[in-house]
From TrEMBL:
Taxonomic lineage of the native organism: Bacteria, Bacillati, Actinomycetota, Actinomycetes, Streptosporangiales
Key words, A-Z: Transferase
Protein name: Amidinotransferase
Gene Ontology molecular functions: arginine deiminase activity; transferase activity
Pfam families: DDAH_eukar (PF19420)
GO biological process, one term: L-arginine deiminase pathway
């Protein structure tokens, strides 16, 4: 870390994860998925367990949801909901292959004492496309979520929503192209956005780290930050260096099997944001 990098403080988080018990790549709904190439299910489970252990070792709480047979992508819990101030907005998937996950996640929230659980009217794939930066919500659209979901977000959470059009099909969810590190800092892949999106990001964040092609292409931006530790693909060495240089602590994990479905560390992690007392 360079001596002029600011001190970055971690805050404890609560996450929801889903073990990849039924994980496989049996259909293709994003350019990463190749149904004809084999997936090592045991290795996927070991990588997922290591990710969970990593979150816990950083002091975070991890709850789990029971996986459902026939829903191989359910491991990507980030797509299960958006939770802000203890309020839950459910999801509605673009493709029928994942549609049944929406109800499974809703019923988890309903049975875990969340008082406000809203069903989605428009297509929105949860935290895959919806990120929180301080008081602002960032809503990606173009490949998966509908732009109209932004109004629903503003209604459910009472916060400002900035819509960002995604421009590169490889980065089909916002969380593959942008990672919020803290309220004023993010890392992102500029070519995944249009001019308006890049300008919006520059207005929201004081500090933006730009990912190079080689780091974006291993889904290095699909990372989980607690304000200090940034859990990211171990292959994303350039981003790890950039983070360390700015006072963050990169925590590398290997998600190679889950990457075959187009997912990384963040996709497997849904943040449960409770109401914070001001
Ligand atoms: N195969 C899954 C899909 O295409 C991957 C989801 C990745 N999740 C994410 N939050 N980016 O829907």
């Amino acid at each position: 870390m360079s001596s002029d990098a600011p001190y970055r403080a971690a805050t404890p988080r609560s996450y929801l994860m889903c073990p990849p018990e039924y994980f496989e790549v049996s259909y293709a709904i994003n350019p990463w998925m190749r149904p004809d190439s084999p997936v090592d299910a045991d290795l996927a489970m070991r990588q997922w367990s290591a990710l969970r252990a990593t979150h816990e070792s950083l002091g975070h709480t991890v709850a789990t949801i029971k996986p459902v047979p026939g829903l191989p992508d359910m491991v990507f819990a980030a797509n299960g909901a958006t939770v802000v101030d203890g309020i839950v907005l459910g999801v509605r998937f673009r493709y029928p292959e994942r549609a049944a996950e929406a109800a499974a996640y809703l019923s988890w929230f309903r049975s875990h004492g969340y008082p406000a659980v809203h069903e989605a009217r428009h297509v929105n794939e949860g935290e895959g496309d919806i990120l929180v930066a301080g008081d602002t919500l960032l809503a990606g659209y173009g490949f998966r979520s509908d732009v109209e979901a932004a109004d629903e977000l503003a209604e459910a959470f009472g916060r400002r929503v900035i819509s960002l059009r995604l421009a590169d099909p490889r980065f089909y969810h916002l969380d593959t192209a942008l990672c919020v590190l803290d309220a004023t800092t993010a890392m992102y892949y500029p070519p995944a956005f249009d001019d308006a999106g890049r300008a919006a990001l520059a207005s929201v964040f004081d500090e933006l780290i730009e990912a190079k092609d080689e780091d974006a292409e291993v889904l290095g931006l699909n990372a989980v930050s607690d304000g200090r530790h940034v859990v990211l693909a171990r292959q994303a060495t350039g981003l790890a260096r950039a983070l360390a240089g700015r006072g963050f602590e990169p925590v590398p994990v290997d998600m190679s099997e889950l990457l075959k479905a187009g997912g990384g560390a963040k996709c497997c992690t849904l943040e449960l944001r409770e109401k914070t007392t001001p």
